[in-house]
Amino acid sequence: MDVYDEGSNARHGPDASSRPVPPAQRGAPADSAEPDVPPGPPEPDVHPGPEPARVASHAQPQPVGSHAQPEPVASLAPPGPYPPGEPRAGIAALSPRYQVGVALALAVVAIGVCVHIGMTFLHVAPANTVTRAHGEAVDDWIYPEFEQNWKLFAPNPLQQNISIQVRAGVRGPDGMTLTTGWYDLSAEDGRAIDGNLLPSHTQQNELRRAWDFFVATHDSENRPVGLRGSLSESYLRRIMVLRLDRDDAVRAATGSSGVIERVQVRSRTSNVPPPGWSREKVSTTPSYRELPWWRVPQDEARGGVR
Q1: Is 269 within 8 Å of 301 (Cβ atoms)?
Q2: Cβ(158)–Cβ(272) below 8 Å
Q3: How far apart are alpha carbons 186 and 212 in whole angstroms?
Q4: Contact call for residues 178 and 254 (beta carbons, < 8 A)
Q5: Helix, strand or coil, per DSSP, at residue 84
Q6: pTM above 0.85, yes or no
Q7: What is the mean pLDDT of the chain?
């Protein structure tokens, strides 16, 4: 018999199996044969249950038997400009139209601040090309409200007490004009400042600066010098009318029904007495500078200026 006869049950070699080859495996290549797996314990019965939640595909698998906590799955949704439920605040809470309005207002304020700082710098800076060409515009911006005064740091500071006094001609309901006594407005400001931790800027400087402005623009005969002289008169007169109109003593003297027709201003100047250890001798007798009567326009007399 042929040794290569596949139908024979005889042994073909020393390593050949004595068992016949099943028909299903005849003709299959030798490489495709599966290795023999030793029998193991029977698998437990698995009952079907709810399907676990599907985890994102990019999550890292956990090793078997590990007790590590699962990592949170990051949201793939794009982040919004604000967390949900948190209200917007500030300018961002306004509508686009109001946001444009706020931006324009801030721009105007910033420009105004820059212009004011520039004008103040040119006013206090030494003479230069810009001040020579535009000095009049700088003065119109600074005077009289923003004038800079460096007398406190001068070698010889002021050693005089100057008080501003005023009296008025008031027309009563009967048509008669009554002249009031002198009111010391500087003394009233001094009483308001004394003991006040936060005194008003107007109480400290308004009256004093108005008088300095007048003196600087008038000669010894109280005649205005240049256009700023008439401006200083109007400025000082309006302050006097406002102060008298608010003064309780004036309203009591006129019965609260009078109209201020004219005002007159004067200054009282006295030297500051020297300290006790000084041998300096100065006169303490006050001197007065009395201005002419100023007629008050009707709009100012009836409270048109505030």
Answers
A1: no
A2: no
A3: 14
A4: yes
A5: coil
A6: no
A7: 76
